[in-house]
């Protein structure tokens, strides 16, 4: 009898499922205890609930936000992922207000945000790839172009695109990169450096009046690839004019036309597009190509500004080749971060 009593006492006081369940119940009681019997939990927080619904609608219907006034639609799409920061704020306020209505409403924007960007939170990088590429807006006011060039070359990229080159700095970049890249071409303010032969090099007219885009064929060991380098016009946020991007949008359309006319099946676009993949104004380009970051990156891969990256406006977009991995490189003397990707050119296997 004594042994049986001992076993029963031990079983009841053990650490089995029943004890864990009781701990969970106590925790739940602490959280919900003050709310029980309070009929106002459904009437409080209606404003918070309305804000949650508006947030969900903005994210869900961002493509319907008009650009007629200050290009507000494009501005919203540029920083669209950051709207998710409002979700935990609304959640905390819902708890503070003890509002069941607000807490339930917050679920909707959370689901919408995860549907839009949840895939970027996972690491999709692979281990393959037979061609590494990189692109970097080096900044015309870069205080040390030589170090910046060496930093980019140290990435191990086979092909490197540089944007915002000044005529005074070009010789410095050429000298710093000569030991790593046998072939290169500079067209206006953009340039392409390659370990493999270049041919068919020409500027691309993006309706600016001067050259900020180029095209070249790179003959890799796995075959020919058409490379485009582009630096689309900058955009500005002005109090009196909103998000001014008309020239950027016009240049994006011209670049999209050039890519659509490209005879080679394999295409890589490197450059500073001054816009994100969510920005509808870049549809002429983004509708034809895949983002390496979206297909094979980890996280959002924000590249600008370098001191506190908030948007990925430096892009590596591809067609006819397979992205294996995509990443940002360490900060240089520029206000942009370099971005790189590993590609599989031979997709026959």
UniProtKB/TrEMBL annotation:
Pfam families: Exo_endo_phos (PF03372)
Segments crossing the lipid bilayer: 41-60, 72-96, 102-121
Limits of the Endonuclease/exonuclease/phosphatase domain: 134-336
Gene Ontology MF annotations: endonuclease activity
Official protein name in the record: Endonuclease/exonuclease/phosphatase family protein
Key words, A-Z: Endonuclease, Hydrolase, Membrane, Nuclease, Transmembrane, Transmembrane helix
UniProt entry tagged with the keyword Amino-acid biosynthesis: no
Taxonomic lineage from the root: Bacteria, Bacillati, Actinomycetota, Actinomycetes, Kitasatosporales
Location of the region described as Disordered in the Swiss-Prot/TrEMBL record: 1-20
Coiled coil: none
Domain of life: Bacteria
Protein's UniProt keywords contain Ribosomal protein: no
